[in-house]
Amino acid sequence: MTSETAQAEAEPQAATDIVPPLLRMSNVEVAYDKVFLAIKGVSLELNTGGMVALLGSNGAGKSTTLKTISGLLAPERGAVNRGSVELRGRDILPLPPPARVHLGIVHVLEGRHVFGHLTPDENLLAAFPTRGRRERLDELREQVYTYFPRLRERSRTKAGYLSGGEQQMLAIGRALMTEPNLLMLDEPSLGLAPMLVEEIFGIIREINKQQDVGILLVEQNAAAALEIVSDAYLLENGHVVMSGKADVLKQNPDVQEFYLGGTGKVDYHNVKHYRRRKRWLA
Amino acid sequence: MDIAYFIELLINGALTGMMYGLAALGIVLIYKSSGVPNLAQGAMVMLGAYFAWIAAAQWGIPLPFAIALAVVGMFLFGLFTERFLLRRMVGQPIIMIVMLTLGLEILLRGLGPGLFGAAPKSLDIGIGLAPIIIGDVFINRSYLVGAIVGVIMIGLALLFFRTRLGTKLRAVSDDHVASWSVGISVERAIAISWGLAGASAVAAGVMWGSVQGIDWTLSLLLFPAVAVVILGGLDSIYGVLVAGLIVGILGSVIPGYVDPIVGGGTRDVVTSLIILLTIIFRPHGIFGREDIERV
Ligand SMILES: Nc1ncnc2c1ncn2[C@@H]1O[C@H](COP(=O)(O)OP(=O)(O)OP(=O)(O)O)[C@@H](O)[C@H]1O
Ligand SMILES: [Mg+2]
User: Which ligand 1 atom lies nearest to the CA of residue A76?
Assistant: First the structure.
């Protein structure tokens, strides 16, 4: 695996030309209830083991984009009008959500959605394939508890009683039980204290490095996200309005003004304000 | 007051209650995974009994195999019901889904006698009629065996929900979208719970059928079964055990003293009161879960 990555780094052009990217979304349009267009021709790409952020304000279409990839539009009466989504060159749009998980796509939902009446241990078990080997289950569970030691301490409490941060950790850990190639995270920083955001983002980066998992990170907390990703897409009103290297985007004056609160640092006042807005919307 | 009479009412009530539990189990299995209160469970118990009777009495298959065959048949019946009736209803208001199960109950009640003849069929499972006598207390042997089967089935259900598959079913009952997001097939989980409800209906149908004969009246077990699940909590297996005992005992002891005075019919009144009072004073039942409030 290491040699593969090294090679990809050495000849990035050649590698992307021959091997299709991990994820390629082309010109996708999605409507809810057949009429409301939530995304209008979104295209994006993510390479194996890459780490990309999808940024944008409320209602920009970030969650819709992730649901399109994981297949979770249908329960909300959403449907893809046009465009394609490919995983390593394979069209995944016809597949139901569990089949996509089987192919290695996992979606950590906005608002965590842990199984509240199950313990963390059981949450992890529920996400593990029924036919998987016992030893693999134990390995994966051990791995999750190594990333998130706090969960181990609370492994027998009902997940509904965990703190917001712990629930977020559990949601990420639960996703790892499916052994993904593509981990999609929808606003993991939502409602968390800045220290905790830093901790969780650190772990996300570690997961990306150690397991060669491609990560698609949806965030409103652009400052924190741009610190850990290599590339980012900016979504407004269902359109990709800007994309590129994280370093370059960070220097862009518009990005600084609208997403980074005028400085390159996390603006805690804004974070709070945004949380309040979220609550209104919920 | 005659203490032996009281103890007899108590014990036979408890045993009956466990047999109610047998009928109630299927309702809980389905509710736990899909949130649908299945009002067709009474007819499924009746159908389970008919299946076992056909295999044993009509086809001459030895009883254990006949029952096994009925279990397979009812498992499939549950799967098909989910696949072709319930799955169409996804996204519909719950009241429509409840009406659908009620419609199915009524349809099957009519269909059962139509297909198999109205006369009650007898199913001898070799328990014998002689009561067990301890001191002055007479215990109904069939009820005793039925209660043991009930306790075993409840135990199996508890164990099942600790397995991988059972854990996934509980996950599905918590959150459908989250289940899909980690690769659990919600549709399959719900189908399996219907299959298991069908299978458990055979146990109830055979035990009750051996006691009172097999005809459409077996489906009337829906009523005490609903009382059990409402009192115990729609999603609680423990609830089936405890509420089964309570419904059974109250439904035996109270009529035991009141019926001679008023001339009968008290049991249904007791059962109805249990349903009404629980809904008014403790809508989630004894063990039913209330939603966890934690932000
Ligand atoms: N289930 C739904 N039915 C109808 N419209 C929806 C639904 N979900 C989202 N929308 C609409 O689609 C648009 C995009 O929503 P989406 O949830 O993708 O935004 P988002 O970028 O994730 O926003 P946020 O940061 O608030 O989570 C919004 O205008 C929203 O109102
Ligand atoms: Mg969103």
Answer: 1
Name the least confident of A200-204, B102-106, B286-290: B286-290
B93 occurs within a structural domain:
yes
pLDDT in tens, A38-67: 999 999 999 999 999 999 989 999 999 999
Mind listing the pLDDT tens digit for each residue in A179-200?
A: 999 999 999 999 898 889 999 9
Contacts of range B264-272, beta carbons closer than 8 Å, 24 or more positions apart: B268/B223, B271/B223, B271/B224, B271/B227, B271/B247, B272/B227
Q: How far is A102 from chain B (nearest CA, A)?
A: 7
B213/B207 Cα distance (integer angstroms): 10
What is the CB < 6 Å shell around ligand 1? A 32-33, 36, 38, 56, 58-64, 76, 110, 220, 281
Question: Domain range holding B115?
Answer: 3-216
CB atoms within 10 A of CB A178: 22
Q: Return the domain boundaries, chain A.
A: 19-114+180-251
Helix/strand/coil for A20: coil
Asked if the C-beta of A102 comes within 8 angstroms of chain B's C-beta atoms, the answer is yes
**Which neighbouring-strand residues pair with B138?**
B133
Q: How far is B278 from chain A (nearest CA, A)?
A: 23
Most informative mutation of A34, A63, A220, A236 for ligand 1 (most atoms within 8 A of CB): A63
Residue B270 lies in a domain: no
Number of domains in chain B: 1
ipTM of the predicted assembly exceeds 0.90: no
Question: Is position B32 within any domain?
Answer: yes
The Å distance, Cα A53 to ligand 2 centre, comes to 13
Residue numbers in B near A158 (CB within 8 A): 292
Count of other CB atoms within 10 angstroms of residue B64: 10
Classified as helix, coil or strand, A55 is: strand
What is the reported pTM?
0.85
Alpha carbon distance A207, A178 (integer Å) = 14
Do the Cβ atoms of A143 and A213 come closer than 8 Å? no
A67 in reach of chain B (CB within 8 A): no
| Residue B261 lies inside a defined structural domain of this protein | no
Phi, psi of A231 (to 5 degrees): -135, 160
Domain A19-114+180-251, CATH: 3.40.50.300
